[in-house]
Amino acid sequence: xxxxxxxxxxxxxxxxxxxxxxxxxxxxxxxxxxxxxxxxxxxxxxxxxxxxxxxxxxxxxxxxxxxxxxxxxxxxxxxxxxxxxxxxxxxxxxxxxxxxxxxxxxxxxxxxxxxxxxxxxxxxxxxxxxxxxxxxxxxxxxxxxxxxxxxxxxxxxxxxxxxxxxxxxxxxxxxxxxxxxxxxxxxxxxxxxxxxxxxxxxxxxxxxxxxxxxxxxxxxxxxxxxxxxxxxxxxxxxxxxxxxxxxxxxxxxxxxxxxxxxxxxxxxxxxxxxxxxxxxxxxxxxxxxxxxxxxxxxxxxxxxxxxxxxxxxxxxxxxxxxxxxxxxxxxxxxxxxxxxxxxxxxx
Length: 347
What we know:
Layout: E1 66-67, E2 73-78, H1 84-88, H2 93-102, E3 105-107, E4 117-122, H3 125-143, E5 150-155, H4 159-174, E6 192-198, H5 203-215, E7 227-236, E8 246-252, H6 254-267, E9 286-291, H7 305-311, E10 315-321, E11 323-328, E12 341-346
Antiparallel strand pairs: 1-2, 2-4, 3-4, 5-6, 5-11, 7-8, 7-10, 8-9, 11-12
C-alpha cells in the first residue's frame, strides 16, 4: 500500500497559530516547543475542504484503479476499521455525501465480508479519483482527533543515566517536599527519549510504520553512531514552577538531534503522525522525570520550585544510542519491563 493512502500531505494544512496542541501526550513536549502551531481538522469533513482537485498530488494510489470488463472502474482501499463509523456518518450521511459529490458508489466492509478493503466504483475513472481524495481528506481529519497509540523511543533505562536517576529520585523523596511522592516519577524501567508520536490503528498500519522506520536508516550514513548523549539539568514544560505538569532532564546530542528531526520530517509524509508531530519542525530532546499524569488518584499539577532550586543542575551522566524502538504507548505504571516494542531500527 502506498504510504500516503490514508492522508494527504500534512504540509497542506491551513495554519492557525492560536491553537494549542498535544493534550494527550505531555511527554513529547507540549505547546511550549511548537514553533508552528496550526489548526487541527477538528471541524471534520462536513465543515471544511482543505484542498481542491487542482491542488492534489498523485502518490501512486490512483494507479491501483482497475478497469472492469463492463467498462466501469474500481478501487480497493485499505482502511482501518476504526474509521468506518466516521466514514459512514450519522445514518450514512457522510458516505452519501461523498458518493453524491463524486458520482460513485462506496462499499464499507461489514464484519461478514471476506475483504477489509473499502471499495469505490464508478463509470468514470475521474470520479473514483475524486472520491479517493475526499475519503483521504476525511480519514486525515479523523486520525487527528484520535489518541496516539505508538511512539518512537530511545531507551535510557540502563547504565549511568538510570543509576543517577534513582539517586535523584531518592534525594527528592528524602527531602519530603509538600505534594511530591513516588507516584510522580516515571518508572526506572521506562526511562526514555520520545522522538515521535503516532496513531497506528491495525496490523497493516503497524507493519507499514515499521517499514517506514527502516527507511530512516539512510540518514545514518553522514552521522557518527552510536550517538553520544549528555543528560544534565532539570527544566519544566510550562512557565510556572509552582504549578508543574512535567519536569524533565535536558538532553544534548547534536547527532541524535539531526537524525530525530529527519525522522520527524519523514513520518509527517506517511499520514501516521499524531497531531503534535504535524505541528512542529523539530524534536525537543528531553527525558521525563516527573509527570502529574503518573499519579493515579490526583493527577493535578505539583509545585516544582524546591526541586528546581536544589537540583536544577543535576548531572545524569552520559549514554549511547545505537537503536530506536517503535513502542506501544501505555502508562509507565502498566509496564513490567520496558514498553512493548513493535519494531526497531538498530545502528
